[in-house]
Amino acid sequence: MQMMGKGAIAILPTAPVSIRNRDVEHPYRPDSDFYYLTGFKEPESVAVLIPKRKHGEYILFCRESDPTAEIWNGRRAGLEGAKTLHGADDAFPISDINEILPGLLENCERVYYTMGNDSQFDQRVIGWVNQLRGKARAGVHTPGEFVALDHLLHDMRLFKSREEIKTMKQAATVSAQAHVRAMQMCQPGMMEYEVEAEFVHHFHKNGCATAYSSIVGGGANGCILHYVDNDQPLMDGDLLLIDAGAEKDYYAADITRTFPVNGRFSQEQKAVYNLVLAAQQAAIDQVKPGNHWNQPHEAAVKSLTKGLVKLGLLRGSVSKLIKDEAYRPFYMHRTGHWLGMDVHDVGDYKVGDAWRVFEPGMVLTVEPGLYIAGGQKKVAKKWWNIGVRIEDDVLVTKSGCEVLTSGVPKTVPEIEALMAK
Ligand code: GLY
Ligand code: MN
Ligand code: MN
Questions:
Q1: Which residues contact 249 (CB under 8 A, 6 or more apart)?
Q2: How many C-beta atoms surround the C-beta of residue 29 within 10 A?
Q3: Who surrounds ion ligand 3 at CB < 5 A?
Q4: pLDDT in tens, 182-193
Q5: 367 in active site
Q6: Which residue lies with its CA nearest to atom 4 of ligand 1?
Q7: Mean pLDDT lowest for which of 26-40, 116-130, 275-289?
């Protein structure tokens, strides 16, 4: 509110309920921006912030208490709870928002509202402002400016507080444990979904949700970046790539590990795996205050390209191959993203033309990979269908960085030892 200043109003609707099929709803999850500011989990809520408003700066529109509805669909905070439990200065029924909101807009100059997330709600906001315009001759003032709230809010979300880091560490720990369990239980002949079930079980048992659709891809499926079918048998001699993370109190972890279905890496699998591992370490070494966003990616690309030349999968001078992006058939994504309430979290990657500089409190993933799809005539057959990604979650600290997901092994001897038990 300090950043918005006097004369401003912010309007933040939470996420709508989403229908899965007919009258079945998806499990409800609030909008991340809305939850970040309010800590309020109920659907059909709108937060309004009006800095310096005498009769209260934080207004929450939400569902009223309703004993009958609550017997069917669960408890509600109600208007009293919105104030006493959730810190709103004032609370109104969501059903009255059309009557109340235009009045709140009346004396404001700037409306902080992010257009384009929810077109139905966009129309309502425009409608409220137009109502005021219609009363201009009666001397009613209309706000002159719409501003996206993202710039302020997303920069706040980029820097994690101590409390947020604590929650992210919990998500990271639970996720790491689940990856360990997957390595321990995996056997040739199992189905990919059986291994996925291990994650669902462990996440839920520890009070977490699944942060994003788990990727559990054996063999050739490990080379499909967003493989989520998870419905194929796991074959002796194949690798298994698992990208799965828990969400704790709406904060995500995002881990990928790749390991042999039968517990022993083949020579080729080991060679590719160790390249990716070395690239990941080179990238993590670049995560420290003062370095910029792209430095881990540049380090990973250099390390991977050198390695691909060593294996004979690329030929030529390393610097020219990097310049020509010759690695792209095998490494087609970037080395990471911000991580927080959203798995691909908010926050700018560039400021103007320059890459963002790392500062303590930022959290990102570091996730290089190599994907050698089968059937490529230019690639020796022994490399086909080896897909490897190694992904960890990294917190920028004052002196460098801290890997939050180190609880799950990633060297070849560690993985083989764990799987042999
Ligand atoms: N799991 C999504 C990602 O790694 O970016
Ligand atoms: Mn990721
Ligand atoms: Mn991931």
A1: 167, 170
A2: 16
A3: 243, 254, 391
A4: 999 999 999 999
A5: yes
A6: 254
A7: 116-130
pLDDT reported for residue 294: 98
Q: For residues 342-359, give the mean pLDDT.
A: 97
Task: Please report which confidence band the pLDDT of residue 139 belongs to, taking 50, 70 and 90 as the band edges.
Answer: confident
Q: How far is residue 132's CA from residue 103's CA, in Å, rounded to a whole number?
A: 8
In a domain, 29, yes or no: yes
Give me the residues near ligand 2 (ion), CB cutoff below 5 Å. Answer: 254, 365
CA distance 249 to 208: 7
CA–CA gap between residue 278 and residue 265 (Å, rounded): 16
User: What would the 3-class secondary structure string for 8-75 be?
Assistant: EEEEEECCCCCEEECCEECCCCCCHHHHHHHCCCCCCCEEEECCCCCCCCEEEEECCCCHHHHHHHCC
Active site residue 389: yes
Residue carrying structure tokens 């087609």? 332
Q: How confident is the model at residue 134 (pLDDT cuts 50, 70, 90)?
A: confident
Query: Is residue 63 located within the same domain as residue 197?
Result: no
CB of 393 sitting under 6 A from ligand 1: no
Q: Which ligand 1 atom is at minimum distance from the Cα of 212?
A: 1
What was the pLDDT predicted at 249? 98
User: What CATH number does the domain containing 297 carry?
Assistant: 3.90.230.10
195 and 114 fall within a common domain: no
Tens of pLDDT, residue by residue over 293-329, are 999 999 999 999 999 999 999 999 999 999 999 999 9
Ligand 1 nearest atom to the CA of residue 244, by list position: 1
Rounded to whole angstroms, the Cα distance separating 168 from 250 reads 9
Residues 231 and 353 in one domain: yes
Query: What integer best gives the mean pLDDT of the chain?
Result: 97
Residue 114 sits at the vertex; the CA angle it makes with 112 and 120, to the nearest 5 degrees, is 120
**Residue 324 annotated to the active site:** no
CA-CA distance, 123 to 58, in Å (whole number)?
A: 23
Catalytic residue from among 124, 292, 333, 334: 333
pLDDT at 141 over 90: no
Q: Is 23 a catalytic residue?
A: yes
Domain residues for the domain of 228 are 159-420
196 close to ligand 1 (CB < 6 Angstrom): no
Rg (CA), the chain: 25
- Would you say 360 and 247 are in contact if contact means Cβ atoms under 8 Å apart? no
